[in-house]
Design a protein that fits this description.
mainly alpha; 0% strand
Length: 151
């Protein structure tokens, strides 16, 4: 009895591994988005606390150095938030790219799996046909062997 062999088995295994790696890349990209969003929230919280501190000085006299330092810090936080938002956008773009890559690899793997399943089904049908032919032939031989007895 012959054994089923799919000629593209190695390639199918490689595609499945690539699919798993692509899934990991998607998860890493999502983690990077989460980290970038957390950074934005952290910076916004710093800006909120700084704003609260600055409101405490309303009506008080501040030295020019303190005033400039407060404004510079606010500007720095604003620029940092803008940069962090850009990083969120880039991270989300990487998620989209990684998802598209994973989808592509998964569809290739699925197509190969479907081809393998079709070939296996065809193999089983041929094997059943072969087995049936052997059974029919054995039955015919018995019948022919018993034919002289019937005469």
């Amino acid at each position: 009895m012959q054994k089923f062999e799919f000629p593209l088995e190695r390639l199918l295994k490689i595609r499945r591994q690539q699919e798993r790696l692509a899934e990991l890349e998607v998860m890493r990209a999502i983690a990077a988005v989460d980290a970038a969003k957390a950074r934005v929230e952290e910076l916004r919280e710093k800006l909120r606390r700084h704003s609260e501190q600055m409101t405490q000085f309303v009506g008080r006299t501040l030295s020019p150095h303190e005033w400039v330092a407060g404004c510079d810090f606010s500007n720095h936080l604003g620029q940092s938030i803008t940069q962090a938002l850009k990083e969120v956008g880039l991270a989300e773009q990487r998620v989209a790219e990684a998802s598209a890559k994973r989808t592509e690899v998964a569809s290739e793997a699925e197509a190969m799996q479907s081809l393998r399943d079709q070939q296996y089904s065809q193999f089983k049908q041929e094997l059943q046909k072969f087995d049936q032919e052997r059974v029919d032939e054995a039955g015919l031989r018995r019948w022919l062997a018993s034919a002289p007895e019937r005469e």
